[in-house]
Design brief:
The complex is a heterodimer of chains A (572) and B (315). Chain A is an alpha+beta fold. Chain A is 26% helix and 18% strand. Chain A has helices at 7-18, 89-98, 146-158, 211-216, 267-275, 287-295, 330-339, 342-349, 380-393, 409-423, 436-445, 465-468, 489-500, 504-521, and strands spanning 68-73, 103-105, 111-113, 116-121, 127-132, 169-175, 178-186, 229-235, 239-244, 258-263, 281-284, 300-303, 316-320, 400-405, 428-433, 450-454, 524-528, 533-536, 540-541, 569-570. In chain A, strands 8-9-10-1-11-18-12 form a seven-stranded mixed beta sheet, with helices on both faces. A five-stranded mixed beta sheet of chain A has the order 15-14-16-13-17. In chain A, strands 4-5-7-6 form a four-stranded antiparallel beta sheet, with helices on one face. In chain A, a hairpin with a 3-residue loop joins β8 and β9 (239-244). The longest helix of chain A has 18 residues, at 504-521. The two termini of chain A are 41 Å apart. By secondary structure, chain B is mainly α. Helices cover 78% and strands 0% of the residues of chain B. Chain B contains 13 helices and no strands. Classes of the chains: A alpha+beta (572), B mainly alpha (315). The interface between A and B is large, with 42 and 38 residues.
Chain lengths: 572, 315
């Protein structure tokens, strides 16, 4: 969640916050966390129809066993411990390779069991029972059972990273009647809890680690899971090597003998590596990548805007500190919204790659999207009027504030353009360049006026509870997970409905209402939804395929989950 | 020996200053370095632990003393990001950078020496003008432009060499050479133009010395005179420039390794800066700075071997 520059960096800094967040770059975008054009929900998914890109990365041929695949990653992670490390799209691919998630998001927005045999709840969603599949062992020979699930969940609950997301979890214990089952008891109803088990951004608790490895305390560098591939070697910022798990619980899988993941931070170098044949498949994150690959007919290329996306994507926006002078006056926040030209920002700073207009956290076509009344086209006259009104009430002075940006050039370009738009209507805006490590800290303690930001990707909007809740608003100087410090009791009320209601219609209405309340409170000045994708050599097969162990198609790789390397194979 | 002794003392003093400045990096960071290292979610216990571990509660020079003691034993600390030993990581990455630097310098010297000699044989002749013009052209190209051109032509277009990555020599010697070729050429291009110019100028001067005229009068062949009589005394400036060029090469290696995603010290430093991995940056800066100082010390030691007159002068 943070600075539109680099998701990984944001996540690295955000610790507690990262438990349910996704950060993307303003210049580059997220993969798993970003959805371009639709959304879904826990119980329904009337989303935008998919495009004719449905078959890209999915093969109807019989998989061929063998071969080593090389993948170029857009970033490096800080380790493999789901309870301690901060994962972005790269981390989620690694996680799906070495671990397995308990559940998988389906294309109707529901959750199906994956590593778990079943995920069930009681009538009021206060007790969830997760049952392990029989006979599965971790790579170190440890049994995967109810005790292993409990060990993972309790480790998560204690972690500074994931703990805040599990505040509603009262207890976790092995079922007295079934040693394969873990019973999780909640403080209050938690209807969309199972979406946290799909392993999306903010759902790291979904990945099961060997209890013996947890005890050793070296999961960060020596991960042991049940996944299709076994960890071999990790040289940070160089490569991660994994080899086939010969006793994988899904018969006949994985198909590849080994995978080598190579982080190549520079997007152009990554593209060059792909074109030169150094790697077989890459994450395409920059506007240039997207434009180049879209024009290249010899490459299999799929982005988040070409498919039906389930869940919530991460928009890029300006986050306003609602208790900071002078922006605590809502008239000025309205003026910022009216003065911001989303189209120009995307065209100039992102070469037109990105989706706009944006009027709320959910894009058009998403089930939670609604007409919020947010001004998506600039109205400078209206903005000037609002600024003038504020000046009149404040002795004729100009409203002055600082907008924060990380030093990343593409982010700075975006912020500088916005600064010019705002100054043109009467603001006196200065840019503060803030190092990434300080960026999140300053946001957490409220030491900022306005920050370029990106956040909110998740399979279900409930994951944003901690970011939007009045309960997480802290005083300036104290930590506040509600970074914008927007205290709106009506939003809190709607968040509770979203979390506890079993009626999907009510849930949708609640989140739509939140979207409208954002347009009224204006803690967020929306800009665009980024576009990013995966480019693959035609020899790589099934890289976009997602399915349950029983073979039922699941939500696509851009729907807040990541590619399943277990399905990948190489053509001869 | 006195000369060597004096140079060693100077070397030690420079290294000491380098380490103080490198260590000072962490002191210049705004806020509490422990929180910067651990992140905003750090518990008070973890912060206290890291402060204790880094001796941050002690005065600056006490902190520095502890840190210096650590790096003298190869302990550069643990990367807060990867939880891996910075010293060990530097040790695995140093050979990669050294190989690229070495190969680039071999290439640069292998090309520049013959060209410099040929140019000096007939000053302002056609060959000399062509070489001089070429050298100016190459000098005007920044390394990142050269890198992009090389990648486009030799990797993306013709697929002769990989665009990124590094293969260990022990794993595959041929692939190793292919993987370092483009990064080394990129670095060599800038160096060789300078070397050609320097060697040409010095050779022209040397060829006008009396001992060369004597050699010619004795009827010795041109090639013999050039290689056996004129070349060695003409390499004095070339050696100095090559030593000083190490600094530029290291700077270039940072860019080149990043563009080619070569896992050397440069790539490690750049990615560590982006990731705010301060201990890693600190360790890399010390190694690079120390390397630069040591190389120039060795260059100083070479002078007496190249030109006995300097030996006598110092004596």
């Amino acid at each position: 969640m943070v600075a539109p520059m680099d998701r990984r960096k944001f996540l690295t800094g955000s610790a507690k916050a990262a438990a349910a967040v996704a950060a993307v770059g303003a210049g580059g975008s997220l993969l798993a966390a970003c959805g371009g054009s639709s959304g879904g929900s826990k119980k329904s998914a009337n989303n935008t129809p998919s495009t004719n890109a449905a078959n890209i990365g999915i093969s109807s041929e019989t998989p061929r066993a063998g071969g080593t695949l090389k993948m170029g990653m857009w970033s490096e992670i800080d380790g493999f411990d789901p309870a301690a490390n901060h994962w972005d799209a790269t981390g989620l691919i690694y996680a799906h390779t070495i671990y397995d998630a308990l559940g998988i998001l389906m294309d109707d927005g529901t959750v199906a069991p994956y590593l778990a045999k079943s995920i069930e709840h009681n009538a009021d969603y206060t007790v969830w029972t997760i049952t392990a599949r029989d006979g599965i062992k971790f790579h170190d020979g440890e049994a995967f059972d109810g005790a292993a699930i409990v060990a993972n969940v309790t480790t998560m609950q204690k972690s500074a990273l994931a703990g805040p997301a599990l505040l509603n979890l009262k207890s976790a214990a092995v079922s007295p009647s079934d040693p394969q089952a873990a019973v999780l008891t909640m403080h209050e109803s938690w209807v969309p809890f199972d979406t946290y088990l799909t392993g999306a951004i903010g759902g790291q608790m979904a990945y099961m680690v060997s209890p013996a490895a947890i005890k050793k305390g070296n999961v960060s560098t020596q991960p042991v899971g049940t996944g299709p591939f076994i960890f071999v070697e990790w040289k940070p910022n160089d490569h991660l090597s994994v080899k086939k798990n010969p006793t994988y619980w899904q018969q006949g899988k994985p198909h590849l003998d080994a995978i080598e993941f190579r982080p190549i931070a520079d997007s152009q170098s990554r593209e060059n590596a792909f074109k030169a044949g150094d790697v077989d498949i890459i994450m395409a994150t920059s506007a240039d990548n997207v434009l180049d690959f879209k024009a290249d007919k010899n490459v299999d290329f799929l982005t988040n805007t070409m498919v039906k996306v389930i869940g919530e994507p991460s928009p890029v926006f300006f986050q306003v500190n609602c208790v900071s002078e002078p922006l605590k006056d809502v008239r000025l926040r309205q003026a910022l919204a009216y003065a911001t030209d989303q189209a120009k920002l995307v065209k100039v700073a992102e070469k037109g790659v990105g989706e706009y207009p944006v009027s709320g956290p959910w894009p058009k076509g998403n089930v939670y999207h609604t007409d919020t009344g947010y001004p998506t086209t600039p109205d400078t006259a209206k903005a000037k009027q609002l600024v003038d009104a504020w000046s009149k009430d404040n002795g004729g002075k100009k409203p002055a504030f600082h907008v924060g940006s990380t030093p990343d050039p593409s982010t700075l370009q975006l912020v500088t353009l916005a600064q010019a738009m705002w100054n043109a209507v009467g603001f006196d805006v200065q840019i503060d360049q803030v190092e990434q490590a300080q960026y999140i800290t300053k946001a957490l303690v409220g030491d900022y006026d306005c920050y370029i930001w990106t956040q909110f990707a998740c399979p279900d909007p409930d994951a944003n509870y901690i970011w939007w809740s009045t309960l997480t608003v802290g005083k300036v100087g104290a930590l506040s997970l509600n970074f914008a410090r927007n205290s709106d009791e009506e939003i809190q009320k709607q968040l509770e409905i979203g979390r506890t209601s079993t009626d999907q219609t009510k849930r949708v209405a609640a989140y739509q209402e939140i979207s409208k309340l954002f347009a009224k409170d204006l803690p967020y000045i929306w800009i665009y939804f980024p576009e990013s994708g995966i480019a693959s050599s035609p020899k790589v097969q099934n890289w976009a395929k997602t399915q349950t162990p029983e073979g039922k198609p699941a939500a696509n790789i851009f729907s807040n989950q990541s590619p399943y390397t277990v399905e990948w194979w190489l053509k001869a | 020996m006195r000369f060597i002794g004096r140079r060693l003392v100077a070397l030690a003093a420079v290294l000491l200053v380098v380490t103080i400045l490198s260590y000072g990096l962490i002191s210049l960071l705004p806020g509490d370095p422990a929180i910067l290292i651990l992140g905003p979610n750090a518990t008070p216990k973890a912060v206290a632990q890291i402060r204790e571990q880094l001796h941050l509660n002690d005065p600056f020079f006490v902190q520095y003393w502890h840190w210096l003691g650590g790096i003298l034993h190869g302990d550069f600390g643990i990367s807060y990001l990867t939880k891996q030993s910075v010293g060990h990581t530097l040790l695995t990455r140093l050979p990669v950078t050294l190989e690229i630097l070495l190969v680039s310098q071999v290439m640069a010297l292998a090309i520049s020496i013959p060209l410099g000699i040929i140019s000096a044989m007939r000053p302002n002749g056609i060959l000399d003008r062509a070489v001089t013009g070429g050298a100016f052209l190459v000098l005007s190209l920044p390394s990142f432009i050269v890198a992009v051109l090389l990648v486009y032509l030799f990797a993306v277009h013709w697929h002769f060499f990989p665009a990124t990555g590094y293969t260990n020599f022990r794993d595959d010697p041929l692939q190793n050479l292919k993987s370092v070729f483009l990064p080394a050429v990129t670095l060599a291009v800038g160096s060789l133009a300078v070397y050609v110019r320097v060697l040409r100028a010095e050779m022209i001067a040397t060829l006008q010395e009396d001992f060369v005229m004597v050699a010619r009068a004795k009827g010795l062949s041109t090639s013999y005179i050039l290689l056996r009589h004129a070349f060695r005394p003409s390499t004095f400036t070339l050696t100095t420039v090559a030593g000083l060029n190490i600094g530029a090469l290291i700077g270039g290696a940072f860019i080149v390794e990043y563009i080619f995603a070569v896992p050397g010290i440069g790539y490690y430093t750049v990615t560590s800066i982006y990731q705010r991995d301060y201990l890693a940056v600190q360790g890399a800066v010390v190694v690079v700075a120390a390397g630069f100082v040591v190389v120039n010390f060795l260059v100083d030691m070479l002078y007496p071997l190249l030109d006995p007159r300097t030996r006598h002068a110092r004596a």
